[in-house]
Design brief:
Elements: E1 6-11, H1 15-26, E2 30-36, H2 40-49, E3 54-56, H3 59-63, E4 70-73, H4 80-89, E5 93-96, H5 104-116, E6 121-123, H6 131-142, E7 148-156, H7 177-193, E8 197-205, E9 216-223, E10 228-234, H8 256-268, H9 273-280, H10 285-291, E11 306-311, E12 314-319, E13 322-327, E14 330-336, H11 344-356, H12 364-383, E15 387-388, H13 398-402, E16 407-413
Parallel strand pairs: 1-2, 1-4, 2-3, 4-5, 5-6, 7-10
Antiparallel strand pairs: 7-11, 8-9, 8-15, 9-10, 11-12, 12-13, 13-14, 14-16
Helix pairs in contact: 4-5, 5-12, 6-7, 7-12, 9-10
Bound molecules: nicotinamide-adenine-dinucleotide (NAD).
Amino acid sequence: MADAPLRLGVIGIGVGAAEMLPPMENADFIDLFAGADINPDVRNRFAERYPNARVYASAEEMVKDPDIEAVWISTPNMYHAPMTILAAQHGKHVVVEKPMALNLKQAEEMVETAEKNGVHLIAGHTQSFMPHMRLMRQIVKSGRIGKLGAVNAIAYTDWMIRPRTWEELDPEQGGGMVFRQTPHQIDSIRSIGGGKLRNVRGMAGQWMPERPIPGYYSAFMEFESGVPAVAIHNGYGYFVASELVPWGDANTRYTPTERNEIKRQMREGTRKETEEKLSLRIGGEGEQAIFRTAHDEAWKPNDLGIVIVSCERGEMRQSPRGLFLYEDDGVKELMVKSNPLGRDDELRELYNAVRLGRPVYHSGAWGMATLEVGLAINESTKTHKQIELTHQVEMPDAYDVEYAVEVVEERVVDDTMPVA
Ligand SMILES: NC(=O)c1ccc[n+]([C@@H]2O[C@H](COP(=O)([O-])OP(=O)(O)OC[C@H]3O[C@@H](n4cnc5c(N)ncnc54)[C@H](O)[C@@H]3O)[C@@H](O)[C@H]2O)c1
């Protein structure tokens, strides 16, 4: 049926999936049809919550199910490429979590296999899909505040001290800040600036002995247009950037005291990380508190960080419910219609492509270009050199028409600092 909900299977029902389950449940165009995971506890909890869904113990079993139309791959990074290829070979459309793959050869193979099998591949679940990032791009393109001058994204988070599995702690398997976190910032920066970066000089940092993976990076990039961009993320959780906005505070998933306690347990080797991780997955207490309890929907600096866009005649940055726009005639807050933290649009991109024959914008080629930048930061860290980029692609203009962000209110902010 042309307008029937899309039958979707989730492979890897972990923390990343926990964040996507509510939007999947709420989207009337998605049928959360099946789940696959190697962990029996996770499978049981999935079966309990979704008694009508099919449950599989492996990706291999799930992709053989002829009733599943598309899969959402949220297994650890090292499985993204092989599982995408497997699913595509079985005729399933794919949304793959970030990072798309561990290297460009894998990414190329993913794109080729999807093409060969006539399925859509979406490099999904980065914060570039979110309304405030799309609105920044749309304002740049509209010329309202003139030509783009620079883009800066800065994140300070607790990412490194969240519970981790062995795969996440192995840089060879895609562990660490560069693989895991550059996609959010690079995708957003590329989208705001058009898509095509020319080169990057980057540096990853690793200085917490208990964590054998990079917990920091900074990167300086240049667009083909000559526009500069900077991306910084520090995940060590001492200082967090949500302290920097008047409507934020120093709490993240943890209070500052809890963060110190976690670090103490890590230093002493007493942290029960496997249990903590399970608690954040489906049916756990952590999942309930973070992903299934209603929170204030206001944006605060998170894993993407604060993004500041400078143009010839103004600047913009995220506000609690949209953007602050600094123009020659004053400061405005542009409120967006959708939840600024909403994650429906990637599901919609999948549905629109499969059911309505619309283009995929966050395509395999788009994801590969973002991956290339992350890999170049790693390369630049080793060589201390600037890396030239060769796989960059533009985001098509049609994206802004099809996924235009609706601004419901534009309010003038007076001469006091903009506050929520
Ligand atoms: N976009 C986001 O905001 C976001 C947030 C969190 C995680 N993620 C992504 O999700 C992925 C997983 O990270 P996570 O934090 O959810 O980790 P996780 O360990 O909680 O989840 C991975 C899940 O996959 C399962 N699994 C492992 N190997 C498997 C296999 N071979 N077959 C089937 N299932 C398997 C595990 O049992 C686990 O339930 C990563 O790629 C990460 O980048 C994205």
